[in-house]
Design goal:
Structural class: mainly alpha
CATH topology: Hydantoin permease
Order of helices and strands: EEHHHHHHHHHHHHHHHHHHHHHH
Family: Belongs to the purine-cytosine permease (2.A.39) family.
Keywords: Membrane, Transmembrane, Transmembrane helix
Transmembrane segments: 86-103, 110-132, 152-174, 186-206, 226-245, 266-290, 310-330, 342-360, 372-396, 416-442, 454-477
Strand order of the largest sheet: 1-2
Number of helices: 22
Helix content: 55-70%
Number of strands: 2
Pfam families: Transp_cyt_pur
Oligomer: single chain
Membrane topology: Multi-pass membrane protein
Largest sheet: 2 strands, antiparallel
CATH architecture: Orthogonal Bundle
């Protein structure tokens, strides 16, 4: 918080006294804000879970920037506890793509233990930015498109919002395509797991199968070249929700509810559900001589009408829960952000469904390479830089403080108007984060050929490179003299 010269007004301390809340104060004649912290690298998490909810109705909002769906959620309207957040994640994890992702890793040659380690590592990494980005949703009660106005600008916020929306449309298409083919549901999975263990002769033959990366095997010496892209794919899998998690945490009672709920609901549930998928896929390799990653084919080889009917019945609920929460809320809000005055949530949802079909999702899941290397790693090239900018803006530039009124105002009244509603620093940082991995993406899609292996190596770590590069560039550009004014104004709230 940037305070008026002469001391810390909230704590009523004088200009030469230390404030009890470690606020940033200024001396009467100081040129730059001075932190009272004795250590320059004091953890940013100081008071992280204790921040008060500051959601309120914005003053003098522009009618073009607000509607009932986009208004801040006040503390009195919060209904989500830690249990609700954990249940939310468990519901999302129990989905067809989770099974497909585990099966795809098996198809790449990994054994059960490696798959589970990869899933645990990737989702543990994902959890951190998920919780960090959930903080402003709780504190200010705003959805993701509104939050992104602070970093990208009032108009520029459409860039990250639409980017996230297009990825969600792709996922919506995948979920609907798979659901339309009736290939999976949790009841069928449990039944299939029991069938697999029995038919394969127990867990021993299933889980003791040799790795294809072992000496003398077809992929000997190639493990790390597969493992890191697989970790990137795991991070990318829920990297979409990393961006728009404020859409849901805005309904949490407090920071502890969203922090604990997500910690309980995401990593461990992913590992447990992955193990079931791995068990069934491993069994298919033992029983049929090759892993069957497509549950439709596996279901067709099973006997008994009852399990199949149960899977068809339960699939409807599994598809709806994941699609509504993960793949409709984000794009619908993004389309609302384009014109809150004219677009409703219902209209945004219908547009999402239409684009989901136009994207031709069946091509995205046609093979393991398409699903992991092209789809998951591909969109991480763009989403990684976005989350890097959002988090660095909120935690480093803004110090967890936003001018809520300015998020809903246009023109010079808004601290986030920048240049015509666009923040050049955010756009430059986004470009800097995307460019290093773009050649690898073009090569993966066969748009470019003959590139050195270096570009493929960068592409395999696209999310991590995008987050790092965009964060560094954004912070440096926002530290430039011309950016200090708007940053200070926003922090003064």
């Amino acid at each position: 918080m940037l305070l008026s010269k002469g001391g810390c007004q909230p704590c009523l301390s004088g200009p030469f006294q230390r404030c009890s809340s470690w606020h940033v104060a200024t001396f009467p004649y100081a040129k730059k804000p001075i932190s009272w912290s004795p250590k320059r690298l004091r953890p940013l998490a100081n008071g992280f879970l204790d921040d008060d909810i500051k959601a309120h109705s914005p003053l003098n909002p522009s009618k073009d920037l607000i509607n009932p769906d986009f208004a801040p959620t006040p503390a009195s309207a919060r209904t989500w506890s830690a249990t609700d957040m954990a249940t939310f994640w468990i519901t999302l994890v129990i989905s067809i793509p989770t099974y497909m992702l585990a099966a795809s890793l098996m198809d790449l040659g990994m054994v059960c233990v490696c798959v589970c380690v990869c899933v645990l590592l990737g989702n543990s990494i994902t959890l951190l930015p998920m919780q960090l980005n959930g903080h402003p949703g709780v504190k200010f009660g705003v959805p993701f498109p509104v939050l992104s106005r602070s970093s990208f600008g009032i108009v520029g916020a459409n860039v990250p919002s639409i980017t996230r929306a297009l990825v969600a449309c792709g996922w919506f298409g995948i979920q609907t395509w798979v659901g339309g083919n009736c290939i999976y549901q949790i009841l069928a999975l449990l039944d299939s797991a029991g069938w697999a263990v029995k038919t394969a002769g127990g867990f021993g033959p299933m889980l003791s199968a040799p790795s294809l990366f072992s000496p003398g095997m077809p992929k000997a010496g190639q493990f790390w070249g597969v493992f890191w892209p697989a970790v990137t794919a795991q991070v990318s899998f829920w990297g979409t929700l990393c961006l728009n998690i404020p859409d849901f945490t805005r309904y949490a009672y407090n920071q502890r509810a969203q922090w604990l709920g997500q910690a309980i609901g995401l990593p461990l549930t992913m590992v447990l559900f992955t193990f079931l998928g791995v068990a069934v896929t491993s069994a298919s390799a033992v029983i049929y001589g090759a892993p069957i990653t497509d549950p439709v084919q596996l279901l067709g080889k099973m006997e008994g009408t009852l399990p199949i009917c149960l899977s068809l019945f339960g699939l409807t609920a599994a598809t709806l829960t994941t699609n509504v929460a993960a793949n409709i809320v984000a794009p619908a809000n993004a389309f609302i952000n384009v014109s809150p005055k004219n677009i409703t949530f219902q209209a945004g949802a219908l547009l999402t469904a239409s684009l989901g079909a136009v994207i031709q999702p069946w091509k995205l899941v046609s093979s393991t390479s398409s699903f992991i290397s092209t789809w998951l790693c591909g969109y991480s090239v763009f989403l990684g830089p976005v989350i890097g900018i959002i988090l660095s803006d909120y935690y480093i530039v803004r110090k967890r403080e936003l001018d809520l009124d300015s998020l809903y105002q246009q023109g010079e009244l808004s601290a986030y108007w920048y240049k015509g509603g666009w923040n050049p620093a955010a756009l430059a940082a986004l470009a800097a984060g995307v460019l290093p991995c773009l050649p690898g993406l073009l090569q993966q899609t066969n748009t470019l050929t003959g590139l050195p292996p270096f570009w493929g190596a960068l592409y395999s770590c696209a999310w991590f490179i995008g987050v790092t590069v965009s964060s560094l560039v954004y912070v440096m550009l926002m530290a430039a003299p011309g950016k200090q004014k708007s940053s200070s104004q926003a922090s003064a709230y």
